[in-house]
Amino acid sequence: MTGNLYALLASRFPADRSRPCFIEPGRPPISYGEVEAGVGRLASLLASKGVAVGDRVVVQAAKCPELVMLYLACLQVGAVFTPLNTAYTGAEVAYFLEDAEPKLVVRDAAALAREAASLPPSAEVHPCDADALASIIYTSGTTGRSKGAMLSHGNLAANALALHAAWGFTPDDVLLHALPIFHVHGLFVALHCAFLSGAPMIWLAKFDDQAVIEALPGATVMMGVPTFYVRLLENPAFTRAVAGPRRLYICGSAPLLESTFEAFEARTGHRILERYGMSEAVIITSNPLHGDRIPGSVGYPLPGVDLRIAGGEETGVIQIKGPSVFGGYWRMPDRTREEFTEDGFFITGDVGRQDADGRVWISGRAKDLIISGGFNVYPKEIELVLDTLPGVIESAVIGAAHPDFGEAVVAVIAGAGDEATIIAAARERLAAFKAPKRVFFVEDLPRNAMGKVQKAALRQAYAEVFAGPGPHQRSRS
Ligand code: AMP
């Protein structure tokens, strides 16, 4: 049997190919039959352009159904789908092009599909092994060069099957898809669950709270990043009636605040299912479909995932092994070696713990650890305290260089309040070395497209707060 992921996905397309695959508001639906034919024509076009097995196809293009068809066509012919964030600038793209050495670069998938329209659809699926390279996903790379995570057909198939089962997808589901598709969440997690069920997707080019509110009544499952849920809750039109008897609300790619989880439950009666993943392994842990979903925990390792905490510590860097863990970084054998242990576990860089029940709790990225006066400070612990204080919508805690302590704790708060009050309240609840030495208020925390707070940008913005010339800028403690 072939290990080609497209063969697996297509085998699950509905027997009745007239069933819808993409439902876009205001446009006629696109059926599974049309998708299959579109994929086949694009496969023919790729072949006519000389794209061969293992060739990279780099894509920086607007989200549309034809882009999904191009992804599937790449799988079909054995090419390596390499999507880029649409926000990358020319200079950034130049780096990726040099690194990936693509055979083809696509900026407009709809135009490519029009070019393929007159070609006969190819039905031939490249018969590859499960370990053949399917996709390169460039990590967001907040520090240093962005790395290309190499995911095989087998990595993606294993994760897709695990999620499809874990989240109970059936052909009766309708997935609301408002995520970008240059990232594993919208591209692999969401699409594969729909395809393995032969289910339709309500397809939105981007997240817009009003558009989601209008589309929700036709959907059974929504997948989102935390910002989606925050935005929905900010909209008074998002009521219990709108949220309705949906089957499932899934969230991930960045930490979901407990306050968001609770506000969502209070408004809608639904407990959001949070899961944890990354480009290098797609999804790693998930809260249960049946059973308690606990705010603040990312749930249990998926079946087949071996998860441990480095050094056998209670809290430490999470290491994983399993069928969806990537093979390495594209053309970076040294980095790959550094990020795997000798016994083959991938060092995720996320710090967390696993409780006696097996649930995983994430406390941040290892590189965000602050060492102040020789003590380790985990930002998440401070953020959890600050987030409960009056006036604080959300906080981000970073370290800034400090003449006495090496690094000192700085809190950046979305919300309004008074620095001295926040510091005093933090000191009542936390050891002095953990309490922020400075507090800054902003309207919104900086985030990337997946809703992750950009701590590197914050560290840069506040790098000098303790380095001023006068003693007035020195910490008082
Ligand atoms: P990316 O490779 O861009 O998908 O980023 C992966 C990183 O996102 C992980 O290593 C985590 O730091 C973070 N992440 C993803 N899901 C969650 C979650 N549910 N809670 C906390 N952090 C998360």
Give the topology, please.
Layout: H1 5-11, E1 20-23, E2 30-31, H2 32-48, E3 56-59, H3 65-77, E4 80-83, H4 90-100, E5 104-106, H5 109-116, E6 133-138, E7 148-152, H6 153-166, E8 175-177, H7 184-197, E9 201-203, H8 209-215, E10 221-224, H9 226-234, H10 240-243, E11 248-251, H11 258-268, E12 273-278, E13 282-286, E14 300-301, E15 306-309, E16 316-321, E17 328-329, H12 333-338, E18 346-354, E19 360-365, E20 370-372, E21 375-377, H13 379-386, E22 392-402, E23 406-415, H14 419-429, E24 438-442, H15 455-461
Parallel strand pairs: 1-9, 3-4, 3-5, 8-9, 8-10, 10-11, 11-12, 23-24
Antiparallel strand pairs: 1-2, 6-7, 7-17, 12-13, 13-14, 15-16, 16-18, 18-19, 20-21, 22-23
Adenosine monophosphate is lined by residues 139-140, 184, 252-255, 274, 276-279, 298, 348, 350, 362, 365, 450.
Q: Would you kindly provide a written description of the structure presented here, covering whatever features stand out?
A:
The chain is of the alpha/beta class. The chain has two domains: 5-361, Rossmann fold (3-Layer(aba) Sandwich); 369-461, GMP Synthetase, Chain A, domain 3. Helices cover 31% and strands 24% of the residues. It contains 15 helices and 24 strands. The protein has helices at 5-11, 32-48, 65-77, 90-100, 109-116, 153-166, 184-197, 209-215, 226-234, 240-243, 258-268, 333-338, 379-386, 419-429, 455-461, and strands at 20-23, 30-31, 56-59, 80-83, 104-106, 133-138, 148-152, 175-177, 201-203, 221-224, 248-251, 273-278, 282-286, 300-301, 306-309, 316-321, 328-329, 346-354, 360-365, 370-372, 375-377, 392-402, 406-415, 438-442. A nine-stranded mixed β-sheet has the order 2-1-9-8-10-11-12-13-14. It has a four-stranded antiparallel β-sheet with strand order 15-16-18-19. Strands 4-3-5 form a three-stranded parallel β-sheet, with helices on one face. Strand 20 and strand 21 (375-377) form a beta hairpin. Helix 9 (226-234) crosses helix 11. The termini are far apart. 46% of the residues are buried. Mean pLDDT is 94; it is low at 470-477. Adenosine monophosphate binds at residues 139-140, 184, 252-255, 274, 276-279, 298, 348, 350, 362, 365, 450.
